[in-house]
Design a protein that fits this description.
By secondary structure, this protein is α+β, with helices and mostly antiparallel strands. The chain has three helices and four strands. It is globular and about 40 Å long. About 5% of the residues are buried.
């Protein structure tokens, strides 16, 4: 599935390592860039995103972003 990510500039090497030199990227603002990637939506993908501690955000599609938010909410509520 095609997913749009908003990434801090300092994670560019990680994006290239994961998706290859041909990954589409463009500047978002002076501190970040947009990357459009084709991935299999899975818990592995979501855990990879989580590992960046907010430096990589899912911008679209909405259902992928919502699923990630749901997983985060469930993880936090399981701590109670």
């Amino acid at each position: 599935e095609e997913v749009e990510l908003i990434c801090d500039n300092d994670v560019m090497d990680s994006i290239i390592d994961r998706f290859g030199e041909e990954v589409y990227t463009c500047p978002q603002d002076k501190n970040s860039f947009k990357a459009v990637v084709n991935i299999a939506i899975s818990n592995v993908f979501y855990s990879w995103i989580f590992g960046f501690a907010g430096k990589v955000k899912i911008a679209s599609p909405a259902h992928v972003k919502e699923k990630y938010a749901e997983m985060l909410r469930e993880a936090v509520t399981s701590l109670d």
